[in-house]
Amino acid sequence: MELLGRYVNGNVRTMIFADGTKVRETDDDEFMPAYAENIDIKICNRCDRGCKFCHEGSTPDGKLGDILNENFVDTLHPYQEVALGGGNVLEHPDLISFLQKLKERKVIANITLNQVHFEKNIEVVENSINEKLIYGLGVSLVNPTSEFIEKISKFPNAVIHVINGILKPSDVELLGNKGLKMLILGYKNLRRGSEWLAEDHENIVVKQMWLKENLADIVNKFKVLSFDNLAIEQLDVQRLFTKEKWDEFYAGDDGKNTYYIDMVERKFARSSTAPFNKRYDLMDSVDEMFTVIRKETKK
Ligand code: SF4
């Protein structure tokens, strides 16, 4: 496996490999990173898909972040990871220049795209990966067609993103046992996600109950199955692990190794679902922002 980088962050020794594998070790009882290992960054709120459950509330004329002119970008650490999302990040005209800037700083950039945008822009994605502008690729599922499965299977670092309450049994039937990686995200009761939950409540809850009940089976159908912290809570994922395995696999609470920056509204917070009174004005340094988040997390 190609080693992308090895670094020490607080009391954590980390190795990152080209296939997305990350190994973290410490000699202490607890991981205490000095700076955030991974930052979720929203770069635009523009998107033409109009998904009813969009917790970002993205629209075709949504705002773009001024991503080439924010000081904090120059304070990112080598091998620090950023997960870029939107909106549709491909709608940001400065995306490639921004990715080049991150690459110069040796920052590891990952992006998330909707399936439709991924399939329409597969060459851009391929070129960005070949040029090492992006490493991880998240693709939000719309429809698990055989063409889609064939296309995504060509990207070893691709992870299919699905939402608890939107994912249905037929999706798992079609995607399962094909050596794919899947990330289950919790349902975010925010912006349009909140309106859609009120409108289609029963349907969403039925799907969430099905997923929770069948999770142990579903795990075995994927090469890798991972969860965000909201899904871990909604699906009570911990019940499927022994204590030892949980300690080995759980990456930590939001705000411990990670936080969220909204470059559109120029705010930062513990996560993208943080309440609006827990979102703070953007600062000029990623470490200063992490200190604020860590203090909040400790409280
Ligand atoms: S959920 Fe994603 S694809 Fe859908 S409207 Fe929102 S940003 Fe666009």
Structural notes for this entry:
This protein is α/β, with parallel strands linked by helices and 299 residues long. It folds into two domains: 1-34, no CATH class; 38-298. It contains ten helices and 13 strands. The protein has helices at 95-104, 115-120, 122-130, 146-153, 169-175, 192-199, 201-219, 229-235, 243-249, 286-298; strands spanning 3-9, 12-17, 22-25, 38-42, 81-85, 108-114, 137-140, 158-163, 181-185, 224-227, 258-262, 267-269, 280-281. The protein has a ten-stranded mixed beta sheet. The chain has a three-stranded antiparallel beta sheet with strand order 1-2-3, with no helix packed on it. Helix 5 links the parallel strand 8 and strand 9. The longest helix has 19 residues, at 201-219. The protein is globular. It binds iron/sulfur cluster. One of its GO terms (molecular function) is iron-sulfur cluster binding. This is Radical SAM protein. Keywords: Iron, Iron-sulfur, Metal-binding, S-adenosyl-L-methionine.
